[in-house]
Amino acid sequence: MKWEQVTKDYKQYLKLERGLSKNTIDSYNRDIKKLMMFLEKNNLSISPTDLNEEIIQQFIYEIAKKVNPSSQARIISGLRSFFDYLIFEKYRETNPTDLIESPKIGRKLPDTLTEEEINLLIASIDLSKPQGERNRAILETMYSCGLRVSELISLKISDIFFDEGFIKVVGKGNKERFVPIHFKAQKYINSYIGSIRSHISIVKEFEDILFLNRRGKGLSRQMIFILLKELAVIINLNKKISPHTFRHSFATHLLKNGADLRSIQQMLGHESITTTEVYVHLDTRYLKKVVEQYHPRSS
Q1: Active site residue 85
Q2: Which of 73, 136, 238, 284 has the largest CB neighbor count within 10 A?
């Protein structure tokens, strides 16, 4: 069995059978390529069906010198999924990663912005430039809806339902959810569509994509990262921020203002409530409030 063919089949399996996003599939594929490069570097001509635990362990030792524990754990998880696929397809009977322990990693609390910092970032956008209107609408949408960057750049005009006050979001694994959108974000999106987007010569395949670059194509993830980095410099913000920072801030501010975790889970598109629970640890006042409200001794 050749590596090229089995990795191609595996990518199709992840897309069609498991419904994973392109970014997730690419991440899995990079993990396998790292293993293939390790084998090539060490002149080990071994097929995926013949790899054993000893060689996988050597590979893990090698990458441990280059990446942090979190990345190690992710790579091990990716390889475990790959060999599980080979077992599923009856190409092999055992998974060589089963007895390999992932490094213990702490659960890092997400960085957040204050409401004032978000307002300053949005206010620092230069509206005299054509992309200014678009950038303001982007930041307001991220903060209003708590979107992942991949969800933001793929947002379609046909997924906007302003009369009902919702947008349809296609999240991980192509799972759809409806998220409320604040009237201020609606206002800035309408302004961008009417005054900027309507004057762009749009490439055919991007006609339904909401946020476009000057060439009429969709935005890249990197463009959103660069935008936020530039705005942070303008307001002298001494925090390392990303699109995910807006998502974390959205959830944290909702929680602080009394929203329940289940509602936040649905809006963020988290499959498990345990993923959403990390936001509780950002503000212990929430826990104090729960005890005061529900514990029988509080009365």
Answers
A1: no
A2: 136
